[in-house]
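Filed under: proteins

Residues; backbone shape codes:
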Amino acid sequence: MTLDQDIITTTKQDPRTKIRDLIQDSNKLVAKLIAACCQADRSESMTSLQHTFAIMIEKDSLLNAIELADAYIEYVNSCGADIGRLYATCCTPTRVKIYQNLLKNLNYIFINCWEIKGHSAH
């Protein structure tokens, strides 16, 4: 289950709260990929993604909003590249939706980070 776009972009919920929800959802999606993957060497990359999401959750309580947004933008870039590589080389179409939802979540994290930094989506 991934968060609906309406919830992400139109509610008055604080961007930082939206980001927390998206990270937690992404972490669950990666866990689904790990459980379903038949190639052990790919599991290491997926576990690394899960670790990155855990770090993002941990940093949430340590950094102020602007520092957090800057850090998360970097994480989104890195995770997006990893997810894109895994998605492009997946051996089964049954996991396509999971990868798409992960990439969508990363985009919403990115958008909300820029909102924290004072830029709004057009």
Observations:
- The mean pLDDT is 86.
